[in-house]
Amino acid sequence: MKSNNRKTFFMFLMAFLVAFFIVSLVEVLRSSFAPSVAPEIQMASAVSSADSVKTPLSFSDLAEKVKPAVVNISTTKTYKGQGGFGSPFGRSPFNGPFGDDFFDRFFGDIPQREFKQRSLGSGFIISSDGYIFTNNHVVEKADKILVKVSDDKEYEAKIIGTDAKTDIALIKIKPLNSLPVVEIGDSDKVKVGEWVIAIGNPFGLEQTVTAGIVSAKGRVIGAGPYDNFIQTDASINPGNSGGPLFSMDGRVIGINTAIVAQGQGIGFAIPINMAKSILADLKSKGKVTRGWLGISVQDISEDIAKNLNHKSRSGAIVTDVFKGDPADLAGIKVEDIITEINGKAVKDTHDLLLKIASFPVGEKVSIKVVRDGKVMAFTLTVAERKDRPEIASATGSKGYFGVIAQEISPEISRQLGIPQGNGVIIIDIENGSPAEDVGLQPQDIVLQVNKVKITSLKQYVKEIGKAAEKKNVTLLVQRGKSKFFVSLRIG
After folding, report:
1. Biggest alpha carbon distance in the chain?
2. Active-site residue list
3. Which of the four, 5, 254, 336, 429, has the lowest number of CB atoms within 10 Å?
4. Nearest Cα to Cα of residue 449 among 469, 476, 421, 427
């Protein structure tokens, strides 16, 4: 019995000693490698610390960091209105359908008096010496512009440059000391779903911070020819106009500019890259000089793509080429479909317009077009855009397709300034017809029927009759100074 107990004790002792030896060995090995592991741990901590400085961990950290560079803008505008019963908004409530004031017509001229209109907006400082970005509509026609900075000092500002087409303005103050400035981001890299904050002066409530996400990019809302808005659900209200939209790294990615009155949680900001692209012009010239190629274009409908044997609806179809301008000199023609410019694909007319407008005057650009199914390349020198028609045109016999046309007579030619022998004039559109559906109107001029140039009513009737047998047609139409294609289909 005693022999068994000793044997058990000895085995337990041996197991304990082996376990102690293994634990001791592991501790020695861990201590030996500790110096080489520690620096890596410290480095990781340093990186984490740097990231936390770069990107605020909360909205409050971000707001505290960026608010000093956001300013409040108040403007005063003077306009003349009528005294007595005149409206304080510049028009009498008795205005009639012909625009004549009720009291003017019955009592003669009423003395005019001046009214002061005060407005509020926002902006942000982009240089320590006082340059500030805001919206054009905030400062447009202002007699006086006051800017309040973060330390509550007020300065009178002057307009350096404005661009109504993008609704961007650059103003300047003369500060007593160096001013805090925003960091400018890259709006092209912004992704839908990212968190953003807006800071501004809504309803006169200074330095208001609202948060949301980027809801969409590249929005076209009909505000101007260069619409390319960032949509956000961060609250934007009257007075926010001109203020900054920040990403979570504290950089400005947009200029808050518009709200949708009928909706909630829908606001729009101008991409900051658009503002950056025109900053030099605003500073040096007070206005923006944009590129011009000398063409009018329109989007490609499904019917137009089918009739022209174009494989997709991407690109923009040329409806007019202005004589002597870059496109004409390079050899581009009506019906060419522009698919690429400087190696970048062209999505539609709006995309093409934005691309062309960004080119400096004098720069050479390469353009690829599809002509009769063949890809062709051209090189153009960008000219300066002046008071010319917009690049994107409006889309606008015996009743074929609902079109009733007639010859352009000498009298019509004289009255409307239309050359004879160049198309036929539409005199009526049948109700409920394909022509009405696509928006054709009386006094539109049909220049081509399925690529055939029309010089007389007889020729028009012949070609439109052929098209009616196939139950579809593509017309080149002129309305005023604009030209555009339409495709009509029967049945």
Report:
1. 138
2. 137, 167, 241
3. 5
4. 476
